[in-house]
Amino acid sequence: MSPPVLDGTPQTHDGSRITSKSPISNVIVSKQHLVEPKEDFSGNYVFAPIREWEVSRAMSQRYFKDLYDRAISDVVIVGAGSAGLSCAYRLATEAPHLKVTIIEANVAPGGGCWLGGQLLSAMIVRKPAHKLLMEIGVPFEDEGNYVVVKHAALFTSTILSKVLALDNVKMFNATAVEDLIVKEDHQGKQRIAGVVTNWTLVSLNHDTQSCMDPNTITAPLVISFTGHDGPMGAFCAKRLVKSGLVPQLGDMRCLDMSRAEPAIVNRTREVYPGLIIGGMELSELDGANRMGPCFSAMLASGEKAAYTALDIFNNSKIENGEIIA
Ligand code: AHZ
Predict the structure, then answer these.
(1) Gap between the terminal Cα atoms of the chain
(2) What is the spatial distance between Cα 291 and Cα 149, in angstroms, rounded to a whole number?
(3) 202 touches ligand 1 (CB under 6 Å)
(4) Is 279 within 8 Å of 301 (Cβ atoms)?
(5) If you measure from the C-alpha of residue 224 to the centroid of ligand 1, how many angstroms do you get, rounded to a whole number?
(6) C-alpha dist (Å) from residue 63 to 60, 67, 68, 76, 85
(7) Which of 9, 206, 252, 307 could form a disulfide with 283 if both were Cys (CB 3.0 to 4.6 A apart)?
(8) Cα 233 to averaged position of ligand 1 atoms, centre (Å)
(9) Dist CA 306 CA 312 (whole Å)
(10) Helices (H), ranges, the chain
(11) pLDDT tens sequence for the chain (325 residues)
């Protein structure tokens, strides 16, 4: 016979259950709603009651409300690595009225910034990009021209917590951008007008299932930070080329920290109407050098993209996610 299923009912010292006559177990069994939660770590910890359907509804109601609401966003940020998160932080704090929606293909946001280079822990940031670290409260050692955060995860977890706490930010992780929406704008010119999404597990299974159509998010501006080429990387840059909107990829060049970092930051821009590209994705589009394990340009490129977006919003009239003037 199988042993009884443990339900966490307080036990006596010899391991036997406290009987249903005990005041605590009586209340749990018969009057769930009257149970007072109690934080008692000596063996009588009591949770407030909950039912399974309450958990399902609490999650699904919010998720689908967000999905409905964000079907029209002001900005979609694709990719929540160090560059995407820096952009989200700057843009959403400077413009709390903008609905900033982040789409991250991975379950865990943060991209390559949970570690430094070669799986080592420390994160190196050249000045003046360290100002963002100071603003969000990430401690570092000052080495003169550059600073060292003792663990890259400290940066990523801090900026992630700041970004996710902002009222105007919603992140859909485990969700991939599969395509771009391209439409004619009010002047009859082609413009990126949003993104095509799917849950990543669906995206990864297109070859094994019959057609599983995607969803869309309409937005006047998409900002892409999907990193350098890889299974999912450089996504928007590659899509621009494949769909004939840009002639060819420049392809990321070999490592040179001194050339790479200013090239990425200073060339972060609206590469096609409605689409800003920054971070390492830009190295694939422009043919810029890589910098390896130095994250300064990712932070500053994210911020540059945010300021570029703010300029676009300041000079445009938007209705229902479309630029109308
Ligand atoms: O999961 C990806 C990662 O979190 C996500 N991503 C990629 N394709 C996506 C898609 N839809 C949604 N189609 C997608 N999300 O984008 C994020 C990219 O993060 P990253 O850390 O790879 O890029 P980054 O540009 O923010 O930072 C690059 C860091 C590097 S790489 C490098 C070198 O190789 O020399 N040096 C630095 C500093």
Answers:
(1) 74
(2) 18
(3) no
(4) yes
(5) 10
(6) 5, 6, 9, 17, 21
(7) 252
(8) 6
(9) 10
(10) 23-30, 52-69, 82-94, 130-136, 152-165, 200-203, 235-242, 257-267, 281-286, 296-314
(11) 566 676 665 554 444 444 444 444 444 444 556 789 999 999 999 999 999 999 999 999 999 999 999 999 999 999 999 999 999 999 999 999 999 999 999 999 999 999 999 999 999 999 999 999 999 999 999 999 999 999 999 999 999 999 999 999 999 999 999 999 999 999 999 999 999 999 999 999 999 998 899 999 999 999 999 999 987 799 999 999 999 999 999 999 999 999 999 999 999 999 999 999 999 999 999 999 999 999 999 999 999 999 999 999 999 999 999 999 9
Residue 55 Ramachandran class (φ > 0 left, ψ -120 to 50 alpha, else beta)? alpha
Q: How do beta strands 221-224 and 275-277 pair?
A: parallel
- Residue 83: closest CA among 249, 306, 312, 288: 306
Q: 94 is written with which tokens? A: 């400077």
Give the number of the atom of ligand 1 that is nearest the alpha carbon of residue 294: 38
Mutation pick for ligand 1 pocket among 225, 258, 276, 301 (CB with most ligand atoms within 8 Å): 225
278 lines ligand 1 (CB under 6 A): no
pTM, two decimals, is: 0.93
- Tracing tokens 């663990």 back to the chain, one arrives at 151
What is the number of the ligand 1 atom nearest to the C-alpha of 178? 13
Is residue 303 within 6 Å of ligand 1 at its C-beta? no
For residue 290, the ligand 1 atom closest to its alpha carbon is 35
Ligand 1 centroid to Cα of residue 43, in Å, is 46
Domains of the chain, first to last: 73-317 (3.50.50.60)
Neighbours of 152 (CB within 10 A): 23
